[in-house]
Amino acid sequence: MRHDHDAGGGHTSSRRTFIRASSMGMTAAALAAAGAASAAAHPTTAVQQARAQGRPLAVTPACDGHETPAATEGPLFKPESPERGNVVTPGISGVRLDLSGVVYDTACAPVTGALIEFWQCDQNGDYDTSGFALRGHQYTDNRGAFRLQTIIPRDYWGRWGNRAPHIHTQVQAPGGPVLITQLYFPDGTQAYGRNFAALNAQDRLRNSACTITLSAPQDGRYTGAFDFVIKTTV
Ligand code: FE
To answer: Are strands 115-119 and 135-139 parallel, antiparallel or unpaired?
Structure first.
């Protein structure tokens, strides 16, 4: 049992044998195309406005070979999560989020069979510490793609003060080092009546380079994109 979760590091390196993932999900590029139409109707963010005006702007930053920034793991990671892309379990009633993306190596080649762990709090800001609600792991497909069906988490008060909504994640290429980081939401995100701009601004752990790109919500559901860039050798 690990007690010092904040130390981070490669504790997952030997935890699992990698397997080939089944095909799943849209790539971030496909998401860009899919989101353009809805964004044009109600442009509210800089990205949406750029789309509405026909200006070229990547829905996620193009892979430039720079590794996705790491962040603290936090105290609430639980090993042995279920393998699944949908982590919404009974009792979870938050604003739905369909998150897709690609895992790249630092040469911008897609990484097949990368292990991705996701864990997050629920619509009340609570983590499931007795079970595995809003927790799961999966493997990228042969295009390096992943898809996570989840909810927008709520902000909460923790050891680092008030935390902006975020999704914890670990990403690891087969045999590679573990990237531990956290994903955030744009200032204009609408969920739970919260002011995401204010929450983002006061969160001292937040790294804006780890912000999910969201499309305009449709039927109260968000579609998001985030691509990871990871090292594949230790
Ligand atoms: Fe957290």
So the answer is: antiparallel
- Tokens read off for 49: 């406005």
Question: How many angstroms separate the alpha carbon of residue 183 from the centre of ligand 1?
Answer: 10
127 CA from centroid of ligand 1 (Å): 8
- Could you tell me the distance, in angstroms and rounded to a whole number, from the CA of residue 31 to the centre of ligand 1? 26
CA end-to-end distance (rounded Å), the chain: 24
* pLDDT band of 52, cuts 50, 70, 90: low
Dist. CA 124 → ligand 1 center (Å): 12
Domains for the chain: give ranges and CATH numbers. 1-9+34-75+90-234 (2.60.130.10)
Q: How far is the CA of 230 from the centre of ligand 1 (A)?
A: 21
Residue % of the chain over a pLDDT of 70: 74
Residues flanking ion ligand 1, Cβ below 5 Å: 74
Within 10 angstroms of residue 48's Cβ, the number of other Cβ atoms is: 23
Q: Measured in angstroms, how far is the CA atom of residue 40 from the centroid of ligand 1?
A: 33
Split at pLDDT 50, 70, 90, the class of 53 is low
CA 36 / ligand 1 centre spacing (Å):
31
Query: Biggest alpha carbon distance in the chain?
Result: 53
pTM, 2 dp: 0.76
The pairing of strands 228-230 and 96-105 is parallel
pLDDT at 54: 57
